[in-house]
TrEMBL record:
The keyword GTP-binding does not apply. CDD domains: GCS_H (cd06848). The lineage of its organism: Bacteria, Pseudomonadati, Bacteroidota, Flavobacteriia, Flavobacteriales. This is Glycine cleavage system H protein. The modification N6-lipoyllysine is found at K63. It comes from Lacinutrix neustonica. PANTHER family: GLYCINE CLEAVAGE SYSTEM H PROTEIN, GLYCINE CLEAVAGE SYSTEM H PROTEIN-RELATED.
Length: 126
């Protein structure tokens, strides 16, 4: 898993990479490995606004569907349209080509509710 000072994790297994006031969001390696092969991704529309921990979409694997939870409050500025045609990018490259949405972060103070790489690793290795 990629470790970075600007990468944060939610307890719901989403990650967010912060660059200035923009966040790039995806699901963690742990989440996609637990789900199995991703066959469909349901993403929000550009301009949609979400609160922290609100459901912003879902991923469908061969045997289950899982909601996606927004790690920080903000407005969606881009979606990864490549996932609509090739959802397995979430499995193959979750931290690069498998990102899901980009957003303008509206409340950077919410970062304190997220986990560092080390804390997230501890939470999944219980």
């Amino acid at each position: 898993m990629e470790a970075s000072n600007n990468l944060y994790f939610s307890k719901e297994h989403t990650w967010i990479k912060i660059e200035n006031d923009t966040g790039t969001i995806g699901i963690t390696t742990f989440a996609q490995s637990e789900l199995g092969e991703i066959v469909y991704v349901d993403l929000p529309s550009v301009g949609d606004e979400f609160e922290q921990d609100e459901v912003f979409g879902s991923v469908e694997a061969l045997k289950t569907v899982s909601d996606l939870f927004m790690p920080l409050s903000g407005e969606v500025t881009a979606i990864n349209e490549n996932l609509l045609e090739n959802p397995t990018l979430v499995n193959e490259k979750p931290f690069s080509e498998g990102w899901m949405v980009k957003m303008k972060v509206s409340n950077p103070n919410e970062l304190s509710n997220l986990l560092s790489h080390e804390a997230y690793q501890k939470s999944i290795n219980k």
